[in-house]
Amino acid sequence: MAKQQKWYVVWAGHEPGVYETWAECQRQTQGYPKALFKSFESRSEALRAYEEGFQGFSRRHRAPSGMESSTEAPIEEALAVDAACSGNPGVMEYRGVYLPSRRVIFEMGPFPKGTNNIGEFLAIVHALALIEKQGLSQLVIYSDSQTALGWVRKKRCKTLLERTAETAPLFDLIERAERWLQTHTYTTPLYKWDTVRWGEIPADYGRKG
After folding, report:
1. What are phi and psi of 38, to 5 degrees?
2. C-alpha distances out from residue 203 to 96, 135, 144, Å
3. Residues whose CB is less than 8 angstroms from the CB of residue 113 and which lie 6 or more positions away in sequence, other chains included
4. d(CA 88, CA 55)
């Protein structure tokens, strides 16, 4: 099946506008302070969102009550994490990005068979361990996966993925992450990235849809 065309709105970037590819969107947002962008399923939807502006779009798509976002705007001193998975399950990878510079701080994979939620879980724990190891107590962590955030808080990756010879290396990482959570007390705040208000999480791979 051919991958569905996506359109990218850049509200705040080097050259705001509507772009047809993720590569174009990246060129306009990488290195731009507090870039605002989001992907859409159709050109008409993207054009409407661009014309009404980020604030107008945000008002029209208010975040659901109870969403764990930190503030009206993202905290700049943060690591944002994301995972990409080609299928569910499928080839999976994850990474963490330093929010102010959009620089990739760590990346793992690809793993031959995994799920997006596993990747998000591992990415959050990877970020927590990195922050503790390097003494970066000023940072917070953003993830756009409510499921993975819940798993981290419960210190358990509750995946339904079957453990096989193919997935064994990934499960070794999962067990290592769970052990870390069970043996460490972290104080780093974990927040849900508010995609509706802020656009795609900066660690996004641009492969949704």
Report:
1. -160, 150
2. 6, 22, 10
3. 89, 90, 91, 92, 161, 164, 166, 167, 170
4. 34
The hierarchical CATH code for the domain 78-192 is 3.30.420.10
Bin 17: left if φ > 0, else alpha if -120 < ψ < 50, else beta. Answer: left
Annotation: CATH topology of 7-61: Ribonuclease HI; Chain A (3.40.970)
Residues belonging to the chain: 209
- Range(s) of the chain covered by CATH 3.30.420.10: 78-192
14: pLDDT strictly greater than 50: yes
Q: What is the 3-state secondary structure (H, E, C) of 147-160?
A: HHHHHHHHCCCCCC
DSSP conformation class of 110:
E
Helix, strand and coil content of the chain, in percent to the nearest 5, comes to 35, 25, 40
Write out pLDDT tens, residues 53-86. 876 776 665 443 333 444 457 888 899 999 999 8
> Mapping DSSP to helix (H, G, I), strand (E, B) and coil, where does residue 143 land?
strand
Report the C-alpha gap between 202 and 8 in whole angstroms.
14
**DSSP three-state, residue 50:** helix
Q: Which residue has the higher pLDDT, 209 or 193?
A: 193
Cα dist from 21 to 7, 10, 24, 90, 203, whole Å: 7, 12, 5, 23, 16
CB atoms within 10 A of CB 140: 19
Range(s) of the chain covered by CATH 3.40.970.10: 7-61
